[in-house]
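Look over this record before class:
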Amino acid sequence: MIHRLLIEDLIEWGKRKNRKPLVLRGARQVGKTTLIDEFSKQYDCYIKLNLEQSSDAKAFGISDNVAEIFQYICLQKKIVADKSKRTLLFIDEIQNEPKAVGLLRYFYEEMPWLHIVAAGSRLQTLIKQRISFPVGRVEYMSLRPCSFLEFLNATANEPLWQR
């Protein structure tokens, strides 16, 4: 895997006490999911949802209560949630379930112990649907295609990076 420089920012985000849910933006196929899979190794528990899959999207149709939704997700994924363990919930392709976007604020307010990252390559489609993101209750990062420095590192040309 190519070492992405953004992982350092993710690690810092994960360490912060006043951390808000993170929305990771980026074009298709730039490595958002791969980056979060790598980042998840920092956690005791990793829960991954892909809202392109109806079984995962169904969780956001059962209730408006984030605790009930989280409990459903844990049952579905056969995971025992433990507040004392660092837990990362990754919601991939969140644009497929606009209700999930609105619920990010409630996860932040009611379950601050839970680290949440949402990603999607077509997040701009929500603007056309007039779905807004919870202003002030989420953070954003953008993943762009591989940078030249990342390329040098991946191709074992790291000495060029030092110049």
Summary: The longest strand covers residues 114-120.
